[in-house]
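Bit of a strange request maybe. I'm writing a small parser for structure token strings and I need a real example to test against, not something I typed by hand. Could someone generate the tokens for this chain?
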Amino acid sequence: MTDDAYLFLLDDPSAPLGVTPAAVGDLACMETPAVRAWLDAQGSTAVSPHLRLLPPEETAAIPEGAERLPVPLGDEELSRVRHLNAPQSLARVEEELLAFRDYADGRDGLIARALAAGVAPHRIVELTGVDPATVTAAASR
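Reply from user aminoacidic:
Good idea to test on real output. This should exercise your parser:
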């Protein structure tokens, strides 16, 4: 696994893989000379429907032979990519986990629901800021 997210080009823009950078919003990496040169070399643009972005933990899903470029993302940018890349049911639970930062009532129930929905324990820790041991304890119940 790499620490970088990846920009890549898909042959079929209707494929449900990754997110378009335009959907994520402002990304600092999109203005770098390296990304702009790569896009020029590919004959593509930052708003192309063929251009996609995946977080580091998902880059194994990039089709073999697809043109790709590793790009560093800030924490907030990476969080937006992960949120948009998640299936809708996971995205809803992740929104609840983000809201969880503002209150503690129902914490264990929310963590249990998130785990049951398939949210990875490390992602729950990242979204909520709770101690990893708390998530581990909820997973074992």
